[in-house]
Amino acid sequence: MVIYSGVYLQIIFDKENNMKIRTDAVMKVGDNLEIVDFKSVADIERFKWDLINYSYDISAGMYTETLEKLTGYKVGFTFVLICKKTGLTKIVEVTDATMETYKERFHQLKTAAAKIDNSNPKGYELELF
Questions:
Q1: What is the pLDDT of residues 60-69, one digit of tens each?
Q2: Cβ-contact 41, 49 below 8 angstroms
Q3: 3 pLDDT band (50/70/90 cuts)?
Q4: Torsion, Cα of 13, 8, 54, 96 (10° steps)
């Protein structure tokens, strides 16, 4: 992957770990990269609820870790919130300590997913009315 100065949209494949991420924007900031994730929200003040309930934290951990492994750069993460009702925006920078928590949640999910037996899937019978 080539890193250009400026902002660009990027789909990134990590073939070794079978991961694909699609970032809204990646910027080169000094010697680091910064992922910017735009979120349209109903209420900016409820973003902490959205963050957990829509798993934005896990996505941020996955995106950051994947990009760090593939590029060797330190990667930061910023949410840009846009209120659907008012159009107001808020920028939320994720601290390094918080990002480590997000990465841990991503690892927990990845570990749990690896334990799923896909050889004999069990589903629900389709019932037609």
A1: 999 999 999 8
A2: no
A3: very low
A4: 90
- Residue pair 81/89 in contact (Cβ under 8 Å)? The answer is yes
User: Can you give the three-state secondary structure of the chain, one letter per residue?
Assistant: CCCCCCEEEEEEEECCCCEEEEEEEEEEECCEEEEEEEEEECCHHHHHHHHHHCCHHHHHHHHHHHHHHHHCCCEEEEEEEEECCCCCEEEEEECHHHHHHHHHHHHHHHHHHHCCCCCCCCCCCCCCC
pLDDT tens per residue, range 32-79: 999 999 999 999 999 999 999 999 999 999 999 999 988 899 999 999
**What residue type is assigned to position 57 of the chain?**
D
List the chain domain ranges. 8-113
CATH architecture of 8-113: Alpha-Beta Complex (3.90)
Which has the higher per-residue pLDDT, 20 or 83? 83
Q: How far apart are CA 118 and CA 129, in angstroms?
A: 29
